[in-house]
Amino acid sequence: MSAEFRIQVAPEVVAAVNGEKLPAPAVETRGLDAWYGDFQSLRKVDFSAAKGRVTAIIGPSGCGKSTLLRALNRMNDLVPGYRTSGEMILEGSPAPTDPAGVIALRRRMGMLFQRPNPFPMSVFDNVAYGLRLERRWKKHDLDEPVERALTRAGLWEEVKDRLSRSALGLSGGQQQRLCLARSLAVDPQVILMDEPTSALDPIATLRVEELMREFRDEVTIIIVTHNMQQAARVSDVTAFMMMGAGRAGELVEINSTIDLFNRPSDRRTEDYITGRFG
Amino acid sequence: MNRRARVNNALAFGLIRAIAIVFLLLVVYVLLYTVVQGWSELTRGAFYTSPPSTDHAGSGAGPQIFNTFYLLILTVILTVPSGLAAGIYFAEYAGTGRLVNAIRRATETLATLPSIVVGLFGYALFVQATGSHPSRLAASLALTVIALPYAVRITEDALRSLPTTLRESSLALGATRWQTITRVLLPAALPQLVTGVILISGRAFGEAAAVLFTGTVGTPTAYANYSLSPFLPGDSLAVNLYVFRSQVEPGTVPDAAAYADGVAALLILLVLVFNIAARYAARHAVRRLQGAI
GO: which molecular function terms (chain A) (predicted)? Predict the structure, then answer.
């Protein structure tokens, strides 16, 4: 395979690939199939995301990237006619499928959406939302975890004087980091990101990408992106998906980001990253 | 843009604006005309405190003001919980089964019933079938029959118009559906829900036909009680207006027409004040729930 297509990869990612082995997977799927009614959206997907690392999912539109992501926290279960088969493994044990188990699973997996979507309530109430779902809190006891989550999301300094004002008054980039803080408040092990920066300007995008790198070792991140540069900048591992027969999404290749971009092992991956397809 | 498109654009815009202005003028005219006509009554103190009389001049509308608010509050208490529940069911749980569609169509049909029919139906069901007499409770139940389909529809539409991502981001944090509805969706839909309550209240304020059969005995009896009992009969301002404008003999109550004008003016002003107050209260509640921008 040719290596003419070179792409800039974050230095610590290079170091990681050269120096250390990937940690064990936090999330895995084996032979995952998914259907919307009669339409098969995913076929036999074997995906894994190493614990404490960033895994990017790239591929052309309609290849099932978001379906795979939303299968992991069972968000797709809300879609009428959706069903799956195959295995989903969380930290080595099968993921729960019963309603109470799914709720517990979602608490362990935060999610960031394409558009920032803070709740129409105050900044404070947004961050405290997840905590208040489990039990009643005295307002005072929430101050510390809310501040901690906002600090981790790099937002504390910007909002500490307007905690009681509406979250909708924040800028788009701030809103997205607020959504990140909202997820972080319940201490998730995994954060799923569905094109989290596609509605943000370049500077806000950079802030979110920096944060993703700061969470290394603490949180497992799985990010769907249609921006290959972004995948290269932020991820340790990249999965490439494409539509196969019958337009069902298939996982073509999953490898360390540096290898996937520089030494793709599949012809289709190479075509896609060099721009011959897509 | 070519000339033709520009001219059409200007024409369309001009026409729409003219229509809007006509409607505004109409509202202002009705309001002013009614208030001017009823002014002499509105400025007479006894008008607000005395009971109405069907055999001499100098009627007041005190008990009717009380009773109008009584019916309004009782109707809202009866309508809002059930309307919310049904609207939440349709928007969040029901899906599109055959039975669900039948229920939805039945609700819409209910909304198109003429209020005089609801009044007669209410009389048959809440008064005759229960072997009782017309009462405030029966009147409020009839008003609920009128208001409920609107309450259901407004709740359903308000919830459906919220972005899906609100629902999803709550569920993604591990919230149950019920937590999502009560903690995110209903507060987010509050402005629309308040508008709904105001619309329903407007109906309850102004409804005469339904109350005529279910709340009064249908003759020009002037009710004069301030009791809180829901089992006593009582007429609202709207019924009183109808009775004094069309049922009372001019010979026995010489000022009946002037009195009716006063009642009409009072009714329209109360609706106006109620609307403004409800909006103000809603804005306050929204700020508390959602935080100031």
Answer: ATP binding; ATP hydrolysis activity; phosphate transmembrane transporter activity
CATH value of A1-91+192-207+220-278 in 3.30.1330.30, 3.40.50.300, 3.90.1300.10, 1.10.3720.10:
3.40.50.300
**What six digits make up the tokens of A19?**
């120096």
Query: Tens digits of per-residue pLDDT, A18-54?
Result: 556 788 889 999 999 999 999 999 999 999 999 999 9
**Residues A92-111 pLDDT 10s:** 889 888 889 999 999 999 99
Average pLDDT of the residues of chain B? 88
B249 confidence band (pLDDT: 50, 70, 90): confident
Residue A256 CB-density burial (10 A; 0-12 exposed, 13-18 middle, 19+ buried): buried
Q: Which of B96, B171, B173, B186 to mutate to test the interface with A (most CBs of A within 10 A)?
A: B173
Q: CA of A116: how far to CAs of A147, A158, B161, B279, in Å?
A: 20, 17, 18, 29
Find the CB nearest B95 among A80, A109, A186. A80
Residue B235 in this model has a pLDDT that exceeds 50: yes
In chain B, residues with a C-beta closer than 8 Å to the C-beta of A77 are: none
**ipTM of the complex model:** 0.87
Beta-carbon pairs below 8 A across chains A and B: 81
How would you label B218-231 residue by residue, b for 16+ Cβ within 10 Å and e otherwise? eebebbeeeeeebe
Task: Give residue B96's pLDDT.
Answer: 76
Single-letter code of the amino acid located at B272: L
Tell me the residue type at A65: K
Smallest Cα distance from A232 to chain B, Å:
27
DSSP states of A147-189 as a string? HHHHHHTT-HHHHTT-TTSBGGGS-HHHHHHHHHHHHHTT--S
β partners of residue A255: A238
**Upper half-sphere CA count for residue A64 (Cβ side, 13 Å):** 29
Domains in chain A: boundaries: 1-91+192-207+220-278
Mean pLDDT of chain A: 88
Q: Do A129 and B290 touch (CB under 8 A)?
A: no
Q: Give chain A's length.
A: 278
**Residues B117, B125 contacting (CB under 8 angstroms):** no
Residue A5 dihedral angles phi and psi, to the nearest 5°: -90, 105
Question: What share of chain A has pLDDT > 90, as a percent?
Answer: 55
Q: Is the pLDDT of residue B267 over 70?
A: yes
Taking contacts as CB-CB distances below 8 angstroms, the residues of chain B near A123 are 291
Tokens 């003001």, located at residue: B65
- DSSP code of residue A274: T
What's the rounded Cα separation, in Å, for the pair A31 and B124? 65
A111 to B169: CB separation less than 8 angstroms, yes or no: yes
Fold that domain B44-290 belongs to in CATH: MetI-like fold (1.10.3720)
Tokens of B112: 């198109």
pLDDT in tens, B170-214: 999 999 999 999 999 999 998 889 888 888 888 888 888 888 888
pTM over 0.80: yes
